[in-house]
Design brief:
single chain
């Protein structure tokens, strides 16, 4: 997935630095194995706190909807797993 998704009109109200943060995460996580995902997500959460990057539920929903439009079936499966983990908290 390239950064074309970042130019989607439905993301126009999200600060560009937030989208760039997400894009970096997409590339960093692309080759992770299942057992590496939890430690990775914990590190991401810490990095987000350090950089003061946070997303409202509305922003998360918009980003996920756009990512689904631009993602491959494998990427969609990863998105679904992450969203399932998010809903359990």
């Amino acid at each position: 997935m390239q950064n074309d998704w970042m130019r989607d009109e439905s993301l126009k109200d999200i600060e560009p630095y937030k989208l760039e943060f997400l894009q970096a995460l997409v590339f960093e996580s692309s080759n992770l194995k299942k057992e590496q995902m939890i430690p990775f997500l914990m590190a991401v959460a810490k990095r987000g706190q350090e950089k003061k990057v946070s997303f409202s539920d509305k922003e998360i929903d918009a980003v996920v909807a756009v990512l689904r439009k631009h993602a491959s079936p494998d990427e969609i499966a990863k998105i679904e797993k992450v969203m399932a983990m998010r809903s359990r908290r």
